[in-house]
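pasting input
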Amino acid sequence: NAGVTQTPKFRILKIGQSMTLQCAQDMNHNYMYWYRQDPGMGLKLIYYSVGAGITDKGEVPNGYNVSRSTTEDFPLRLELAAPSQTSVYFCASSYDSLRGSYNSPLHFGNGTRLTVT
Amino acid sequence: QQQVKQSPQSLIVQKGGISIINCAYENTAFDYFPWYQQFPGKGPALLIAIRPDVSEKKEGRFTISFNKSAKQFSLHIMDSQPGDSATYFCAALNTGNQFYFGTGTSLTVIP
């Protein structure tokens, strides 16, 4: 199993451009999440999904959109990139609960480093 | 507003020493407290977790101590090794199923 795969690894965008961060998991996990990680700020939840066709906002959803058409894929869309969206983005998944319990931990991808200039 | 406060921001420990990282929270709706370990260029990985009905959980060299009345929990790494050098995040999950992460502690273990 590849686990959680994120692409691209790095990207530089100009202000106002749009892009999609890709996330795929091959563990048949129901639950998927997008986090952003900023220096000294920890991880902030952007959006999450409890299954195909169902998504919900997290702590910092403004400026982002998501979709979940299949169990495997959970892309994150930035429509009008702003410098405040410069960050490292992590996708994660878990099997049977948002709680990411010890028996069903959150599995993270290796991140996408995005710079908006 | 930071829901989970973590300290210290960075920590340097000699090999064989004890590393201690502390976290505090305010929201009593939190009911699950995991710790994550992150190496450079990688995503966080679950290290150990605890629920508030126990005061301590130990797995190998890693121990979580939990003080419900003080709303504090801490990670202890015994016999710290250079391979433990990483960033550690505490987290808390509320009954609304949202995780809140601490700001991270960069641990360096000197050989």
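fyi The longest strand of chain A covers residues 42-51.
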